[in-house]
Amino acid sequence: MVRKQIEIAEGIVRADYEYWVGKYMDKFYEGLESQKFIGIKCPTCNKVYFPPRKVCGDCFKTIPLEDANLVDLATTGTLINFTATNYAVSERRKKKSEKTTIIGLIKIDGSDTAIITPVLETQESDINIGMKVEVVWDKKPVGSPDDIKGFKPAGGT
Amino acid sequence: MGKKLSAKSPATKPVVKQEMKQKPARQQATQASKKEGTMERVGIVGYCQIKPSLDLQMDRYEAAFKAVRGALDSANLKRKDLTSVISATNDYYDGRTISNCFTVEPSGSYLKDESKVEMDGAYAVLYGMMRVLSGNHKLVAVWGGSMASGFPYEVTTLLTTDPTFDRTKELLNIMTAGGFQMRAYMEKFGISAEDIANIAVKNRKNAANNEFALPESQDADITVEKVLESGVLSSPVTELMYSRPCDGMACVLLAPEKQALKITNSPVWITGVGYSQEQYYLGERDLSKSLSMENAAKMAFKTAGITNPKKEIDVAELFEHFAHEELILSNAIGISEPGSQSEIPVNPSGGAMSGNVLCATGLVRIIECAKQIKNEAKDHQISGAKRALASGQIGFCAQNNILYVLEGGEK
């Protein structure tokens, strides 16, 4: 029907944004470039944030960006939760893809917060909460979020 | 100069304060409240729901107009009676900034006190209550809704993530967050997927008795197997455990106690409200429970003078974005034990599962409670319902929760 066509107007605006990651996340990305995980420890409560955070919400205080508070973390961790989907997270949900993405909440050894990252080189039926995992680096880290390809079960598969 | 000013103000301030306290109007209002020490009652005096649909074939303005006009008609009131209009819409959902500026005429808000909440309509009711309790407003329309047929809801939720890391990974949206939450709850309390599917079965059967339910959500013959086999959304959540977004609008009218009793003989009173939110990052939260709802419930029950919700509440309408959230929220409110279903009826309308109209779902929960209290819920009426709970939420894994206590219209 013609009616349907005149009812719909396509949006034509394109608005790209740039976010300044800030000095704290800059340390994080610097670390990734040399295949290191850098977290930050709140000097008041000793909570370790990874990625580093400027404010400790629990203490409601700024964590000073000083070497003494920056922590070199292991590149291994524990899977604390996971989900798997065949839908693209950044596209309108219309049809399922063949590819299943396993997404994990992973607590890096030595940190108190968990990050959200793909779980690779395994199947959903083979993973469980509490299992140890290790990082899978991109071949050429450049200091970007994509340097972390994901995590895989520790000890090699 | 500076010294002069600071010397003057302390001498005059306390006097002004004392005078304010002794104002007779304030005393009168306190006496009119049900009990000393509780909140002044705000009355719901009218409401209207546009029946949700996957494609309403109606533009936003027409739908907003129908909701506000319908609410005014339900109370035999006119636009001139409105003093304030509060809306709940979302710029991303509506595809433009300051989305309320386009609804000025259809919502009847031009040349009125007008504002917007970029959250669920249940939060707009809190804002509306503040306008009423300020003493400046006699009638506030609170409306909200969206047209899910016109925007990719799941994608807009990715846009709420931290742009400096999480957003770039494109892994977290409302579906995957729901997957984490359901698994956390199952692990913590040893719950099976069947237990959670049971909630979806209950709500979809209830929806079949609700004339305002999304037709696609109604299923009188649904089984646990059907829910479990409906396809994985984000494991362990399946399609039928998800409260699917749809098109719709809703509106309620709020008035101060005295005015409410002039408008109707049977207002529904808001006697308690509580609101709280949790940390932003999922990696720092215990997803197996809802601390924000625990806080909200404590606050709401304290205001309403409720000590034993299991005994004192007749029905609850909770905003469950997923089946498992109904269990988590009931538990946080204190109407169920961890891992079990509620001991009082929850979501006789079918809850959010009967039509998840984003920005109106919580508002509709309030309307559903008002219907129960006024004995207007027809086929899903809980007989003798006098006191009800309605909740709204927003954020990943119900990060923010708001809870209302609503009561019947005895003077």
Which short descriptors sum up this protein?
heterodimer; A: 157 residues; mainly beta; 5-stranded antiparallel β-sheet; 3-stranded antiparallel β-sheet; 2 helices; 10 strands; B: 411 residues; alpha/beta; Peroxisomal Thiolase, Chain A, domain 1; 2 domains; 9-stranded mixed β-sheet; two-stranded antiparallel ribbon; 11 strands; 38% helix; disordered N terminus
In the residues of chain B, how many domains can be counted?
A: 2
Radius of gyration of chain A: 20 Å
Question: What best-fitting shape of chain A do the alpha-carbon axes yield?
Answer: globular
Binned strand content of chain B: 15-25%
Oligomer: heterodimer
Whole-number total of structural domains of chain A: 1
Q: What string gives the helices and strands of chain A in order?
A: HHEEEEEEEEEE
Counting DSSP E segments of at least 2 residues, the number of strands of chain B comes to 11
Q: What's the rounded overall pLDDT mean of chain A?
A: 91
SSE succession of chain B: HHEHEHEHEHHHHHEEEHEHHEHHEE
CATH architecture of the largest domain in chain B: 3-Layer(aba) Sandwich
- Residue stretches of chain B low in confidence (pLDDT < 50, at least 5 long) are 1-34
> What integer is the average pLDDT of chain B?
90
Care to count the β-strands of chain A?
Answer: 10
Q: Percent helix among the residues of chain B?
A: 25-40%
**How much β-strand is present in the residues of chain A?**
25-35%
Shape of chain B: globular
- Spatial gap, N to C terminus of chain B: 56 Å
- The helix/strand class of chain A is mainly beta
Main sheet makeup of chain B: 9 strands, mixed
The structural class of chain B is alpha/beta
Would you give an account of this structure?
Helix content of chain A is 11%, strand content 32%. With 157 residues, chain A is mostly beta strands. Chain A has one domain. Chain A has a five-stranded antiparallel beta sheet, with no helix packed on it. In chain A, strands 2-1-5 form a three-stranded antiparallel beta sheet. The longest helix of chain A has 12 residues, at 22-33. The mean pLDDT of chain A is 91. By secondary structure, chain B is an alpha/beta fold. Chain B folds into two domains: 42-151 and 247-270, Peroxisomal Thiolase, Chain A, domain 1; 153-243 and 272-405, Peroxisomal Thiolase, Chain A, domain 1 (3-Layer(aba) Sandwich). Chain B has 15 helices and eleven strands. In chain B, strands 3-2-4-7-1-8-11-10-9 form a nine-stranded mixed beta sheet. In chain B, strands 5-6 form a two-stranded antiparallel ribbon. In chain B, strand 5 and strand 6 form a beta hairpin. Mean pLDDT of chain B is 90; it is low at 1-34. The A-B interface holds A 11, 17, 19, 21-22, 25, 28, 51, 57, 81-93, 96, 101, 103, 105, 107, 113-118, 124, 129, 144-146 and B 95, 152, 154-155, 158, 163-166, 168-173, 175-176, 179-180, 183-184, 187, 231-237, 279, 281-284, 287.
